[in-house]
Model the fold of this input.
Amino acid sequence: MIYYKTNEEIELMRESNLLVSRTLAYVAENLKVGKSGKSIDKAAEEFIRDHGGIPGFKGYRGFPASLCMSLNDAVVHGIPSDKFFTDKDVVSVDCGVILNGFYGDAAFSFAFKNVGLGVENLLRVTRESLYKGIEAVVVGNRIGDISYAIQNYCEKVHGYGIVRELVGHGVGRSLHEDPEVPNFGMKGKGTLLKEGIVIAIEPMVNMGGKAVKQLNDGWTILTRDGKPSAHFEHSVAVRKDGADILSNHSFIDDSVKKNEEIIDISINC
Ligand code: MG
Ligand code: MG
Done:
C-alpha cells in the first residue's frame, strides 16, 4: 500500500532529510585515516540526538548502529567497526533519522585520497546515475522509468554491475514503504508515479559483477568478486512539476572540500 504525502507532510520529511544530510556532512568532516567507523558512528548518533532526531537505523530489525558504514567490497548494511580507516578505503555511509514522526534516508560514498582512478570513476558514475533516475521522476512516468535510467547508465554505458537483491523504496512514517524502487528494470513498467509519493532512490553499483553475498554478521552485503562498490541515495518527493529532492548532498560536498583526506567527487547536476 502506498501512502501519498500531503504538502505539509513533505515539508516535515524535508526537515528529517536535512538532518540526515547535515549528519552526513558532519561525518564527511570527521573521516580521517586512523579513525574508526565506530567512533564516527558514536559522534553521528550524538549529532542526530543533539538536533532533536532519533537515529532511524539503530535497533531497526536489531541493527546495532546509527550509521551503515560499508567499506570497499561492502555494498551496504555494513556495521561500523573498530578498524582504522586507511587512505585506500571507500566508505559508503547510509544514514536514517526520525524527526517529526517521519524518516529521512540518504547515503553518500566517500573515497580516501589513494583509492585510485578506477574507484573514483565508480563513485562518480554511481552518483550521476542517481540523478539519471531522478530525472525520470515525473508524474505519469512509472517506477520502471527510474530503474531503467539507472541500469542503462551504469551497466550499458559504463559496464558496472547493478545489485539486484537490494532496492530503493517508499519512505515516510516507516523506513521502508511501498513501492519498491529497483535500480534495474524496464521503461513504462511498475507503479505509476503520482503526486505525493516519496521514494528513496539508491543505486548500489559494483565495479565488477552484480553478484553479492551476505557476511556472517547477518548484515553486511559484500560483492561476490571482492571488487569495490558504491552507494548514493536521495529521498525524493513526486510533485506535479517533477522531482523534489528532500535530502541535500551539497552540504556533504562542502565538508568534503574542506577535508584534504577525501577526494571531491562533485558532479554537474
Ligand atoms: Mg539509506
Ligand atoms: Mg534507503
